[in-house]
Amino acid sequence: MPLIVRFLGTAASRPTVERGVSSLAVIREGQTLLFDCGEGTQRQMMRYGISFAFDDLFFSHVHSDHILGLTGLIRTMALQGRTEPLQLWGPRGAGKTLRQCISLGGDRATFPVHITELDAGESVQRPDYRIDSFGVSHGPSQSIGYAIVEEERLGRFNPELARAMGIPEGPLWGRIHKGQSITLDDGRTIEPSVLVGERRRGRRIVITGDTRPCAATVEAAQDADLLIHEATFADEEAARALETGHSTAREAAEVARQAGARRLVLTHISARYSRDAHELEREARSVFPRTTIARDGTEIELSLTEELAGTAELARDAHTA
């Protein structure tokens, strides 16, 4: 099934006429993950068709343009009669600020809201994928990025050959597809390699939040199908980017190039480029041609890959050698 990334807010620091502040949704096999929740996120969710029936909200850090939408979102969920728990994730130290957002205004949530703080390097495990956290460089703030990493998928099973070999359809097919040898009633032993191809790699999506270009992002984004990197400024404001702990579009593109990412999408755009971000796109594409600038409502669809597991690692090793 395709994996969908929907950008809900793509502005830096404050909303503009064209852009809301930071938030994006990832929809994978019917499950929605929300990343950051800037002012007005709930309105953007309604506008772009993102269901409120989600369970996990990940914060990169607790600067106001990434968290102010939480209060209103929880209030709306309560008014809708939600009873299911909501899980909030954020960097170490985020819990105090998030709790203030939840209680702001004196209302109480009508459903459980749990907060888990993550140290950089910790992972949230799911049945067939995980969300890895990694440390980024955003001045003195405790900030993390996230990588959604799918497990390797089983190789393709050859049903025509299985039938030709006289293997009855049913549990035996399932066992051999999972890598188990089987013994037939006539005494033949069938090894999985006869009927099953090599394992295929899963998808990797990396979301940086606010950051300077840093080695941790390069490492997390190795061979990523999609790198979502902030690009607050153009080259003309490189000194300002350094001062404020942000990146230029060219710097984000260099991260993508070093990581060998397959695609780069830039977000967290300064208000000065809100209406026309062609300058950012031009500077980034001079380094990494497979770059686009996200706008509110931009949708990225990532299909399952047929690439064999380990192919990218072998290519990188050969290039390094």
List keywords for this structure.
alpha/beta; globular; 321 residues; 7-stranded mixed beta sheet; 23% strand; single chain; 12 helices; 2 domains; Metallo-beta-lactamase, Chain A
How would you portray this structure in words?
- This protein has 321 residues and is α/β, with parallel strands linked by helices.
- It folds into two domains: 269 residues, Ribonuclease Z/Hydroxyacylglutathione hydrolase-like (Metallo-beta-lactamase, Chain A, 4-Layer Sandwich); 37 residues, no CATH class.
- 28% of the residues lie in helices and 23% in strands.
- The chain is built from twelve helices and 16 strands.
- The longest helix has 11 residues.
- The mean pLDDT is 93.
Give the gist of this structure.
The protein is 28% helix and 23% strand. By secondary structure, it is of the alpha/beta class.
